[in-house]
Specification:
The protein is mainly alpha-helical. Helix content is about 80%, strand content about 0%. It has one domain. Keywords: Membrane, Transmembrane, Transmembrane helix.
Length: about 120
């Protein structure tokens, strides 16, 4: 597997873990913070165990799309009350969601869409 793909998995796992921990501290531990931490763990483990590569890639891609949706909703919530305002914790979460989505783009770029297309090249 390409080194850039492995690095992007590690960086996305770090971004997911930081964002999930900040979210758990701000909003309390919930289902999505636990799912996010599980995906971060899956991404890190897939670096060492190649059998977890494809589940980790797809989980990273899905969580990246969910991060984009959450970022859009967070930006929309910032406009409540007629003026745009973010608290400090919301700014940190928005930054984390942005990085989660950004690193998932790398997973879309560096990993082929299926295991069969990797064997053909």
């Amino acid at each position: 597997m390409p080194m850039l793909l492995q690095l992007s998995k590690v960086f996305q796992a770090i971004a997911i873990a930081i964002t999930a921990l900040v979210s758990a501290q701000t909003l309390g531990v919930g289902f999505w913070s636990m799912v996010s931490l599980a995906v971060a763990l899956l991404l890190i483990l897939s670096v060492f165990w190649p059998i977890l590569h494809w589940p980790a890639i797809w989980a990273g891609r899905v969580i990246g799309l969910l991060a984009l949706l959450a970022l859009a909703l967070l930006l929309l919530a910032g406009t409540a009350g007629g003026a745009f305002h973010f608290s400090d914790s919301s700014q940190i979460m928005a930054s984390g969601l942005f990085f989660m989505f950004g690193f998932s783009i790398l997973l879309w770029l560096f990993a082929p869409l299926s295991a069969g297309s990797e064997e053909q090249s």
